[in-house]
Amino acid sequence: MKENDVVYLPMFEGYVDSNGKMRSLADKTPTSSTSGTQEIDYCKANGAGWQLDDWSNTAMVEDLLMLLGKTTDVQKKYGRGHDTGGSLLTTGTLKSKGEFWGANSSDGSKAVKFFWLENYYADRWDRKQGMVTNGSTHICVKMYPPYDINGTGYIDTGIVPSGGSGSYIKTTNVSEYGNLPKTLDGSSDKYQPDGCWYSSSCFLLFGGNCIAGLLCGCAFNLDNGVGVAYWHVGGSPSFKKAS
């Protein structure tokens, strides 16, 4: 394993062009209703180093949001994002805005932007490599590529979320593997007020969607296998130089 000087994250939600490549461009309809294996292949079609965005990138963004905002309530701090409405936004609605932009905490109809990243949470669940649950519902992670869709070679953190699946996160475990949900049945206005869903043998979806309301944010959906294809789920490309 080698350290990279830089990694490239998706500025906009991914969409698949006519050549079967997953791109991150403005003024596009985000691609959805594709399986995780399809999304991985669409990203790889861009060439060496391109991949479906991963948990290690996401963990970095999550940490920065909480550190800079001095809160675990990212929707209250940066904007709710598009968490209502039931249809996906066109990418680039905030391209004329600055590095950070979000509507107030009562408005769930608009996109959110931070570090130039648009809709990193809400609008559409984004599928991420590098985190799965195993057959015992333990969260398993791998912090660098290559990735296996079944979690082969991943580290078993031993963390098993407890509490009502689909409720707010109450406590987390913070380690070199990121900030991971531990207990649920929290609240929409305290603790880490983002949703978590979980089951065994599932693949990470992150951020929430346009029907999840205040459960969006640094939200974890570990309740679906890699093959699920829904209108509110998709993938986005990122780049890490091949070793």
First-last Cα distance: 7 Å
Number of strands: 16
Secondary-structure element series:
EEHEHHEEEEEEEEEEEEE
Alpha plus pi helix count: 3
Shape: globular
Helix proportion range: 10-25%
- The chain-level structural class is alpha+beta
Low-confidence stretches: none
Biggest β-sheet description:
8 strands, mixed
Strand content: 15-25%
**Overall average residue pLDDT:** 96
Model description:
- The chain has helices spanning 36-44, 55-69, 74-78; strands at 15-16, 22-23, 50-52, 113-114, 117-118, 125-133, 139-141, 155-156, 167-169, 171-175, 178-183, 192-198, 203-206, 220-222, 233-234, 237-239.
- The protein is α+β, with helices and mostly antiparallel strands.
- The strands form 5 sheets. Strands 6, 7, 8, 9, 12, 13, 14 and 15 form an 8-stranded mixed sheet that branches. It has a two-stranded antiparallel ribbon with strand order 1-2. It has a two-stranded antiparallel sheet with strand order 3-16.
- The N and C termini lie close together (7 Å).
- The model has no long low-confidence stretch (mean pLDDT 96).
